[in-house]
Design brief:
Layout (H helix, E strand, L loop, with lengths): L1 E6 L2 E3 L7 E2 L2 E4 L2 E5 L8 E6 L4 E2 L3 E6 L1 H9 L9 H12 L7 E7 L10 H5 L6 E6 L4 E4 L1 H4 L12 E3 L1 H9 L5 H17 L2 E9 L10 H10 L6 E7 L3 E3 L10 E3 L12 E9 L28 H13 L4 E4 L3 H17 L4
Parallel strand pairs: 1-6, 2-7, 8-13, 9-10, 13-14, 14-17, 17-18
Antiparallel strand pairs: 1-4, 2-3, 4-5, 10-11, 11-12, 15-16
Helix pairs in contact: 1-6, 6-7, 8-9
Length: 352
Amino acid sequence: MLCSRITNATILTMDPARPTARELGIWRGRVVGLDSDIAGLPARRVLDLDGATVLPGFIDSHVHLIWAGLKARAPSVAPSRRVDAILRAVADAVTAAPEGGWVSLGGYDQRTLDRPLTAADLDAVSAGRKVYLGHISGHACLVNSAVLKELPRHVTSSDGFLAEDAMGAALALRPPHTLAELADAVAESGRVCRSQGVTACAEAGIGSELFAHSPLEGAAFQLAHETGRLPLRVQLMVAADALRPVEAAPEDTTTRSFGLGLRTGFGDGRLSLGALKVFTDGGMMARTAALTEPYAGSASRGQLQADPELLTQTIVEGHRAGWQLAVHAIGDRAVDLALDALAAARRAKPRA
């Protein structure tokens, strides 16, 4: 007996030899036959679609489930248009935070404001709290003076705007989210994905200092999976900056490995490790993508995330160690570096 049968539908099979079908049979969560394959087989549940079209689930190759889930639950200043409206939103959020605690908001976009917003502006409504205003790009933030005072000496900002590594330094000061909070964020984002027809995705970089949700965020996905709150298939890309030096035998061709809080039982058809995520530059909205020519109205050409030789070495060593590679490269200068490094990796160890 089939678990379910879909009937009276236009089913797109993605098989050139059999592009469409009218009926589909499901057994224990898997498609087991079409049309004549399942003719006469009884089913516990029959769904008549009255001619509607059935598509395979979409696969999104680049998502940030935790980031999106946390952002959905946090206060937002979007759309960022007027500084006084942003400051009112910050003041409202501050009232719910304990004295000396962190206040995190999202939706900030400096490009659309009526005037520049600074750390001093945030100070006026912070009431002794540390305020972190996340940029919509995910590659920058604005913080108040209480955060600036705790940053490492080499991280400086005249107005409270921090991008890329400097943003990571600010996030490192924030108390880590609990695994329960992160698992809830994964579940929330997963439900949104499913509502849009996305049934599988790749989480683009866990363990990255750029986001710094928790040193155990890999375990949050496992917790969501084990508690039945992971409604889609997920592959986890591991951020290259999560790798740490290791002493390995020369024939094992790796000098770095990682620890993300993963434990026994990790990895199946629903949740597994995927590619190594390498960030070569930032993003266009924060003007940190690495360009060969300056941004309009600016002398800045953006920035690479590290020395070009180190980035190339990371890509080559990742390939040699057996990782699939997912290289973030937005600006043309970063794309050139990435392509050259991938070519070098293939030369060092030819494989698919």
